[in-house]
UniProtKB/TrEMBL annotation:
It comes from Brassica napus. The lineage of its organism: Eukaryota, Viridiplantae, Streptophyta, Embryophyta, Tracheophyta. Belongs to the actin-binding proteins ADF family. InterPro entries: ADF-H, ADF-H/Gelsolin-like_dom_sf, ADF/Cofilin. This is ADF-H domain-containing protein. Residues 6-136 form the ADF-H domain. It comes from the Eukaryota. Gene3D superfamilies: Severin (3.40.20.10).
């Protein structure tokens, strides 16, 4: 663990992320900081969509999340991009926001294969349209 943030990352976080990336077992993964480590809070099945994902984020607590976004390019190619979303709602506690902010880069480095990063403080900042525009 990095001395600066002192945050450990559970192996399960990396394992599930690898499964999302290589086997596409999940549509999304939501992570939370529990004490001194990052743990998997929720796994979204491949059938779930972006609304299921955004509805899984708590309204007033911070989370990290990974979303596997499938889309079709203008040339009609099927593609997918893995988004890392740092969810930090304005209504969450200041201390919580600081902990999530200071641990984010270290945690993100553990997840090899993230293509787009988004920082959101309210749902409008991570709307489906924004995700779509960032993917293309």
């Amino acid at each position: 663990a990095n001395a600066a943030s002192g945050m450990a990352v559970e192996d399960e976080c990396k394992l599930k992320f690898l499964e999302l990336k290589s086997k596409r077992n999940y549509r999304f993964i939501i992570f939370r900081i529990d004490g001194q480590q990052v743990v998997v809070e929720k796994l979204g099945s491949p059938e779930e969509n972006y609304d299921d994902f955004s509805n899984s984020l708590p309204a007033n607590e911070c989370r990290y999340a990974v979303f596997d976004f499938d889309f079709t390019t203008a040339e009609n190619c099927q593609k997918s991009k893995i988004f890392f979303i740092a969810w930090s709602p304005d209504s969450s506690r200041v201390r919580m926001k600081m902990v999530y902010a200071s641990s984010k880069d270290r945690f993100k480095r553990e997840l090899d294969g993230i293509q787009v990063e988004l920082q959101a403080t309210d749902p409008s900042e991570m709307s489906f349209d924004i995700i779509k525009s960032r993917a293309l």
